[in-house]
Design a protein that fits this description.
By secondary structure, the chain is an alpha/beta fold. Helices cover 45% and strands 15% of the residues. The two termini are 38 Å apart. The protein binds nicotinamide-adenine-dinucleotide.
């Protein structure tokens, strides 16, 4: 956890101000961009188990230079004002970096979801939604929440339904939250999006040999050993795709109640099933176990993926990490002091605002889908197949007429004739976003001598874009 003198919010501010010091922007504008516009705290009571229980929730709006503002809702006992403000600020910078047209926001409810059963959580969530709606802190045009730690499709479905009941005449009501189940207006691929984005980010990084060299690594992504912290939504999907599709052994998984290790790689599907069944990673067959603790982050590996909570890499443990490359799947896992040590050691950090942007990117696609009231690809898919079939048939006819006897392989024909459906379009849009955004960061990283790390580069790109919007607005 962060040392007492550096809160998560301080860490984000310090990283932002370092990048801002490299710009020629007026100090007043930098300050306007840095500050959090507003944070709403709500305390509400819900009658449960025969007594009234009071809950505390937050929704912070960091910047409204673009609307709606966007950001997840977290359910955890650690939620506090400093944390939601830091996370809201990161959302502003993240959206600017990956060019999704939103301002930054974040919310949280101080609750341990494990303490309540499903019915109770539903009542609490619906009541929280009511409180947010009264202040336009959930609205398709002003503020669009999404899942984060401790929340998922289920909570988003409750929120969407509660909002719809409060605003029955709003035709865009579905777009009030993203990360909903597909059956009620969600989009294919949203659940996996942040983990998928981590995979695409790493694939892109390894397409750039100079960057790989700077990390002290060589060769391809395939075969790189990975340590991951947190096997929740983001961590599980990242670990699954990287191990199953990219051939990366996941050698260590650090969870809140223990660590498992296998130098040859853990079976992620089996481990996830084990956690579901037993509640933890202990006694997972074929792996060594260590009780709760963070020492697993220091295990031998090429890539470290913190995918749980903030402030887990500090100046205290950063000197001992063995990874050469860290990709921040979680928000804010490295403190400002920890970051300094990692930079001095030449460990490359792919920063959170880029690395975990897959979630908000696909949320953007979902929001667009909800506003347009039609699924992606529905109009074009069969038309595209029809055009492709025309071409394949014509090539067949030409080769027969000219006596060349060219034949296409069945595999090629099938792949070429297939029109893209929603999941393929989502993956294509996400891959494009991760590639393009990486290249923008790298341009600054390699192109400006004052910029030594990808995080500063990411802030520089984001800051420029936000300043341009303010400039266009006359500020
Ligand atoms: P989640 O609740 O699904 O999973 C979190 C996982 O981390 C759980 O398995 C939990 O047991 C584990 N964990 C919690 N505290 C831990 C600790 N101290 N040590 C080890 N493991 C611990 O949450 P998530 O949605 O996967 O989010 C994880 C991180 O990714 C958060 O920082 C979140 O802000 C960030 N993020 C999430 C999304 C998204 O789409 N869900 C998008 C962007 C960023």
């Amino acid at each position: 956890m962060a040392t007492p003198h550096t809160s998560f919010r301080d860490s984000v501010d310090r990283m932002f101000l370092h990048a801002a010091s490299l710009s020629k922007l007026p100090p007043g504008l930098i300050e306007k961009i840095r500050v959090c516009n507003s944070t709403y705290t709500v305390r509400f009571g819900v009658r449960l188990r025969g007594a009234i229980h009071t809950f505390t929730g937050y929704r912070s709006v960091h910047s409204e230079h673009m609307e709606p503002v966007k950001g997840g809702i977290r359910y955890a006992m650690s939620v506090n004002q400093d944390e939601v403000e830091a996370l809201a600020a990161l959302m502003t910078y993240k959206c600017a970096l990956v060019e999704v047209p939103f301002g930054g926001s974040k919310g949280g409810l101080r609750i341990n979801p494990r303490d309540w059963d499903e019915d109770e959580l539903e009542r609490i969530t619906r009541r929280f939604t009511y409180e947010l709606s009264r202040r336009s802190l959930i609205s398709p045009s002003q503020n669009v929440p999404a899942p984060d730690m401790g929340t998922g499709e289920r909570e988003m479905a409750w929120m969407a339904d509660a909002y719809k009941r409060l605003h029955p005449d709003d035709i865009n009501a579905k777009a009030c939250v993203t990360g909903k189940p597909v059956t009620i207006g969600g989009i294919m691929g949203r659940v996996e999006a942040t983990g998928r984005g981590i995979q695409y980010a790493l694939q892109e990084f390894f397409r750039h040999p100079e960057a790989v060299k700077r990390a002290g690594l060589s060769g391809e992504l395939s075969g790189k050993r990975i340590v991951i912290q947190g096997l929740g939504n983001v961590g599980y999907h990242a670990a699954k795709f990287l191990s199953e599709e990219d051939g990366c052994p996941i050698v260590t998984v650090v969870e809140y109640n223990g660590t498992v290790h296998n130098p040859n790689g853990l079976d992620i599907e089996a481990l996830k099933a084990h956690i579901k069944e037993t509640g933890g990673v202990e006694d997972f067959p074929g792996a060594s176990f260590r009780p709760a603790g963070m020492e697993g982050l220091e295990d031998e590996c090429d890539i470290l993926i913190p995918a749980a909570v903030e402030s887990v890499i500090t100046e205290e443990n950063a000197p001992r990490l063995k990874a050469k490359l860290i990709i921040e799947a979680a928000n804010g896992p490295v403190t400002a002091e920890g970051d300094k040590v990692l930079n001095e050691r030449g460990i490359v950090v792919i920063p959170d605002m880029y690395a975990n942007a897959g979630g908000v990117t696909v949320s953007y696609f979902e929001w667009v889908k909800n506003l347009s009231q039609i699924s992606l690809g529905r109009m074009e898919r069969r038309y595209e197949e029809h055009r492709n079939r025309l071409l394949v048939n014509e090539i067949g006819r030409l080769s027969a007429d000219s006596g060349l006897e060219w034949t296409m392989t069945d595999g090629f024909k099938e792949a070429y004739l297939h029109g893209a459906d929603e999941i393929e379009l989502v993956r294509s849009g996400l891959d494009d976003t991760m590639r393009e955004s990486y290249m923008k960061m790298e341009e600054v990283w390699f192109g400006d001598d004052r910029v030594n790390d990808l995080r500063t580069a990411a802030y520089v790109v984001a800051l420029r874009r936000i300043a341009n919007v303010y400039g266009s607005l006359g500020l």
